[in-house]
Amino acid sequence: MSESYDxxxxxxxxxxxxxxxxxxxxxxxxxxxxxxxLDGVFAGYAACWVVLECNVAETADSxxxxxxxxxxxxPRLRGCGVAAHLLQAAxxxxxxxxxxxxxxxxxxxxxxxxxxxxxxxxxxxxVVMEKRVxx
Length: 135
Fold this sequence. Notes:
Aminopeptidase
């Protein structure tokens, strides 16, 4: 995790609540969670679900899309194809759910995630910028 984002809580601090959130979101929104193992040892995970929005500026197939909410690969296995397998599983699940588009997000300075997503065919779609408002 980036140290440059003071808005992000440490993973250890939020792990239980975040896991509950992923479980609830996948259960309620036609989603799934995959865990990757290598030789019986945890290698990473991915979670996705279907999102329905009502954005009047978007087409119908863009308002109902598959969202890859999270991916994680342990550092020593990054670049070894684990993320590709997880993203393929998410894509297959979302295709079966009838979506025509997938979306994914990453922190702006998470170069390894952005590379993995681009390798899997994701392209920049919308950029969200943030500025701290000081008193």
